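Moderator note: this is an archived Q&A kept for reference. The question asked for a predicted structure of one protein chain; the sequence and the answer are reproduced below.
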Amino acid sequence: MLRMKTNPTFRLLVIVAIVFLITYAVVDGIRYGSTPGVVMAVLSMTAFVSSLKMAQKLKKLQEEEEQSGY
């Protein structure tokens, strides 16, 4: 299986940028009193965190699979 090797610094930079943009959306929603905007931004943050957790689990499963020789 072909895995994409990414630079850890680049990956961290992308994560920080996404978190910054979502946080900005929350602050902007609060500033303008937009309850739906705040809710959507918080749900976006939740979805982002859960996708990061699933990506870590997938990476762990792939490493275990490679070690088992399957």
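Archived answer notes: The chain has one domain: 9-68.
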